[in-house]
What we know:
Helix content of chain A is about 0%, strand content about 50%. By secondary structure, chain A is mostly beta strands. Chain B is globular and about 35 Å long. In chain B, the strands form 2 sheets. In chain B, strands 2, 4, 5, 6, 9, 10 and 11 form a 7-stranded mixed sheet that branches. A 4-stranded antiparallel sheet of chain B has the order 1-3-8-7, with no helix packed on it. Chains A and B meet through strand 5 and strand 10 of A and strand 4, strand 5 and strand 10 of B.
Amino acid sequence: xxxxxxxxxxxxxxxxxxxxxxxxxxxxxxxxxxxxxxxxxxxxxxxxxxxxxxxxxxxxxxxxxxxxxxxxxxxxxxxxxxxxxxxxxxxxxxxxxxxxxxxxxxxxxxxxxxxxxxxx
Amino acid sequence: xxxxxxxxxxxxxxxxxxxxxxxxxxxxxxxxxxxxxxxxxxxxxxxxxxxxxxxxxxxxxxxxxxxxxxxxxxxxxxxxxxxxxxxxxxxxxxxxxxxxxxxxxxx
Lengths: 120, 107
């Protein structure tokens, strides 16, 4: 059974940093691209970043480019958040994609999410 | 960037109703269009991938279709557990984008 467990969220001040983690189990981690998707309180879903299975390609939303960094190791997905702003306040979900490659996938499994609150 | 315009933003329906939600892409996404269901306080759940393929374990009352850059999610007979918010999402190119969501409420 696929399991994705996010951690690392919390309350921070504007301008501070945070690192989110997503511990993965139940599948061959390196065989799948992974993504972060966020949801601001009461709002819709927003894709944040994706990384291929081999970690050779990374993609970012314009809203986080240059401030957030996605990475992965053998079983954990990470998202380093720097220069946090009030508008980054959201639940951050990690999601397992359907293939190793960068595009044409779907988010077939999701974690339960971790809440990041940025106070100004 | 490809924009996804989802309509309606909300609808009221009764159990047993046929429900249709539409998503329009601002340019071609081929068949790289997926649908998700989200209930309050829960993570999204994949329903339909590649425009019309039903995810394993999803009831057959859910279906998806494509006509050019217009995509449709249909629930053939709404069940009590289907009251939720639905999102479309394309995976044709970065940035990946979601539609604004459609909240299906009890009439």
